[in-house]
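Example record

Each entry pairs one chain with its bound ligand, FE2/S2 (inorganic) cluster.
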Amino acid sequence: MKPKNQGSMKDPDGFGTVGNPRCGDIMTVYIKVKKIKNKEIISDIKFETLGCAAAIATSSMVTEMAKGKSLDDAFQITRQDVADKLEGLPPMKMHCSNLAEGALKRAIEDYRSKVGAKGKAPEKTKEKNPPHRRTRK
Ligand code: FES
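Structure tokens for the complex follow.
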């Protein structure tokens, strides 16, 4: 297995983290967004997943599916779309694809919350890293 788009991202425009309460696995998606012809496009995307092989495979696939898509189109990607693109997941592993869908949607929502209703460029905030990556002092 060679996951694509794995790793963190410096100064993402949005990020989202979700955890799976059944197994404790966790996934973060980072996105960079560019406006091209008045559409907001996911120009770069990365993920970090602490989880099972299915969680990593679905994380990799959702980033491949979302890259280059508009935010609206990427937001429509479902866990079933991800599983179908992987040519199916065993039923007991279907819940693993929830992480991929959920983290992507949260990253898009995070970007939109920073941009606001007027569509301004996102402000660079002090919070550059998701909560689980911060170090304690
Ligand atoms: Fe936890 Fe797959 S078993 S996400």
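The first helix runs from residue 53 to 66.
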